[in-house]
Amino acid sequence: MATKDAPRVLVIGGGSAGLLTAHALQMLGASTVEELQKTIESCQVDDHRAGEDETMPIYNCKTEELMIRLPIPYNIRLKRRKFIRHITQGLDVKVNILQIRHSSGLTPLQYSKKIKEVSSDGKKATAVFEDGTSETGDLLIGADGGRSVVRDYLVGSSQSALADTPIVSTFAIAQLPAEAVEKFRHFGNRMAIAFHPNGYFTWVGKHDAHESTTPPGEWKFMVAQTWRPEDPNYDPQTMQREKALADAKRRAKEFGPTLSEIWQSIPDNTTCWHSRLTDWKPDELWDNRNGTITLAGDSAHSMTFHRGQGLNNAIHDAASIARSVREYGFTPDAIKAYEAEMIPRGREAVNGSRANTIAIHDWDSLLDSPLFKMGLKAK
Ligand SMILES: Cc1cc2nc3c(=O)[nH]c(=O)nc-3n(C[C@H](O)[C@H](O)[C@H](O)COP(=O)(O)OP(=O)(O)OC[C@H]3O[C@@H](n4cnc5c(N)ncnc54)[C@H](O)[C@@H]3O)c2cc1C
Fold first, then answer.
1. Out of the domains of life, which is the source (predicted)?
2. What is the location of CATH 3.30.9.60 in the chain?
């Protein structure tokens, strides 16, 4: 990696990890904690104001008895699109795929650039895009998500493959009828988790629900179920779209009355996603080509979502890269120090998330799971 004062950095991927890393490296806009809290809160799914004494209810999905109220102090629930739009601001980019930093700031680039190949000669890294164009920089940061092309290059495509977990999920973003919303407000209000003795997990949470502007009958909710199929060779491709929703509604008939009503009230034309949960953990230091290529966010550590640690770790990565660069400059030592901090942290988060995901789908191990013992804290 070049050590001159104005290196060119390519950040691949315009999700949270890429955009936050670009911000952190630019070291833009020193905000106070209060300013930051206000801005972040404005990107939420609802009008909630974060506070110290917040809790999340966890129910027995069959009896609807409250099992525990997990402390979740200063809980922030971000609406992804709003958050991404917000953190794109100030980067002076018209692109959500690639940002380039050089001495004059970030160069505006085109939308929808898709990286196809990466290479490095140990001094410069080059990204080749599907449209045949390419860009070269002193440092390339792969923040291109769970199926990262940059990771394929660093560790080889077979080592880079996502690992299956035994758990599958069904998700939908649904507009619920006003009566179901009213029931949910007494049950979880903002979000609720329930575990069924048969090994099902279900989540209902506000997704777009601004009381100040929208009547409850127009709010959107994210609903999810996860479970472990009995057939170890079960193929989620056999249960797509309307089949997935019908299957979730069938399972929800085993739930208590409120949760069952919420699920049954989802309009049948609601889009549903059904897939197997996967993850990828960084097992060891990779050859970062003399500090010219590294990873951040899900591309570096892709984890199951039940403990809500993915974005937290992506934010940690952005801060960690910026801290290393501040200490060592844009040098191979900075990337070495960043990876030495990030890789064990990412590995632990992926392992912990997987252990938790498996434990919570088994009624007997549920109460010993990290979620019940530690809540959503990282450790
Ligand atoms: C249901 C669910 C709930 C979650 N809940 C939480 C939670 O409560 N707390 C928490 O901390 N985390 C949570 N997470 C995890 C969190 O959302 C992710 O860890 C985080 O968004 C990862 O950000 P990222 O930028 O690394 O990846 P992504 O958001 O996937 O962004 C990757 C970017 O790279 C781009 N890209 C992909 N391929 C290419 C390519 N070939 N070329 C160029 N660009 C490319 C994509 O378009 C995208 O813009 C949850 C995840 C899910 C699925």
1. Eukaryota
2. 163-278
Q: Residue 210 pairs with which residues in a beta bridge?
A: none
Domain span(s) for CATH 3.50.50.60 in the chain: 9-43+78-162+280-360
Which residues fall within 8 angstroms of residue 237, CB to CB, at 6 or more apart?
A: none
Q: Among residues 226, 171, 237, which one has the least CA distance to residue 202?
A: 226
For the CA of 224, the nearest atom of ligand 1: 1
Residue 372's pLDDT is what?
A: 74
Q: What angle do CA 277, 73, 353 make, to 5 degrees?
A: 20
Fold held by 163-278: D-Amino Acid Oxidase; Chain A, domain 2 (3.30.9)
Task: State the pTM of this model.
Answer: 0.90
Give every CB contact of residue 336 below 8 A, 6+ residues apart in sequence.
Answer: 288, 291
Walking along the chain (379 residues) 10 residues at a time, the average pLDDT comes out as 64 87 69 72 90 91 94 89 80 45 43 85 93 89 95 96 98 96 89 95 96 93 97 94 96 97 96 97 93 98 95 96 92 97 97 95 86 65
Task: Indicate if ligand 1 lies below 6 Å from the C-beta of 328.
Answer: no
Contact 294, 339 (CB under 8 A): yes
pLDDT the model gives residue 30: 52
Per the CATH hierarchy, to which homologous superfamily does domain 9-43+78-162+280-360 belong? Answer: FAD/NAD(P)-binding domain (3.50.50.60)
179 C-alpha to ligand 1 centroid (Å) = 33
What is the Å distance from ligand 1's center to 314 Cα? 9
What was the pLDDT predicted at 33? 66
Beta bridge partners, 379, equal none
- 114 Cβ inside 6 Å of ligand 1: yes
Contacts of 341 by beta carbon, 8 Å cutoff, 6+ apart: 320, 324
Q: How many residues does the chain have?
A: 379
Task: Locate 77 and state its tokens.
Answer: 């629930």
**Closest atom, ligand 1, to C-alpha of 144:** 34
List the strands of the sheet with 134-137, edge to edge.
115-120, 125-129, 134-137
What is the reported pLDDT for 91?
64
